[in-house]
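Hi there,

I know you've been waiting on this one. I reran it after we fixed the sequence typo, so this is the corrected version. Both the input and the resulting structure follow.
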Amino acid sequence: MHEMSIVAGLVEVLEEKAREAGAARVTSVKLRVGEMSGVVPELLSSAFEAYKKGTVAELASLAIEIVPVRPQCQS
């Protein structure tokens, strides 16, 4: 389940950015996920709920926006 490693990296960034801003906590997180990224939104949400415990994001909500594929012709 690569969603857990994505969330681990996300929480690392949240901790760093909160520290830089002098914030004690993060209250909401908005993610944009590509439709063809291979990420399962439900698994990402579950992983976030499990991983955020004991972090600056412990009370944060997670909103996931699925970004549709936009094919482009290069010729």
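Quick highlight: The longest helix spans residues 2-21.

Best,
R. S.
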